[in-house]
Amino acid sequence: MPELVDGGFLDQRTFTGTVRLRLPLEETEIPETFPLEWKVSEIELESEDGEKTAYSGDWEFNSEVHRSGGRTECGYGGVNESGEGIGQIVRTEEDITAEKLLPGNEGTEDYEIVMCDASGALMNRAGDYYRTENRDISTVYIFLCTSEDFSEMTEYYQSEKYREGARGRTFAQLVEQRALYSAMMHYESEYLSVYQQA
User: Fold this and answer.
1) CA gap 183, 123 in Å, rounded
2) Counting runs of H as helices and runs of E as strands, what totals does the chain give?
3) Closest listed residue to residue 93, CA positions, set 168, 171, 38, 18
4) Does the model's pTM come out above 0.85?
């Protein structure tokens, strides 16, 4: 952990970003501040054109983490007849994450939670977290689908074939046809809904 870090390079040797990970705490109360030790042995960077470069090393970070006092909202999805679905949905001031529900809770890496904004456009993602910045989240469409289906749909949605043959259909409409389960959440939003196509 984390799977992804959201950020960018300040120069050729300095990267700054936001790290999001689930805390392995047994207590329900999270202290105002707590130490975090983070060890990294491999970093993989992906460029905008999809080219990946991996680096190996021995990096250690020791930080004093301050708990955010921002607003948090929780909701819940549900499951289909096979027990596949969406569990707890947590929204903070910056992002939304949702829990995968699967029979036996096995093979979660083979499934994806997909979120689209009110316009039906795929939201920006950092690991398990979908960013709400500059998005109309008055309605958020949340889907559970297989990783294979999600990969195929994303590739098709970004293709010239989709632009020519399915103009006007949103990514949410595309995913809904193959989703194992879907949920919808409504939040206060300062942004107007604008259709976006990748």
Assistant:
1) 15
2) 3, 12
3) 18
4) no
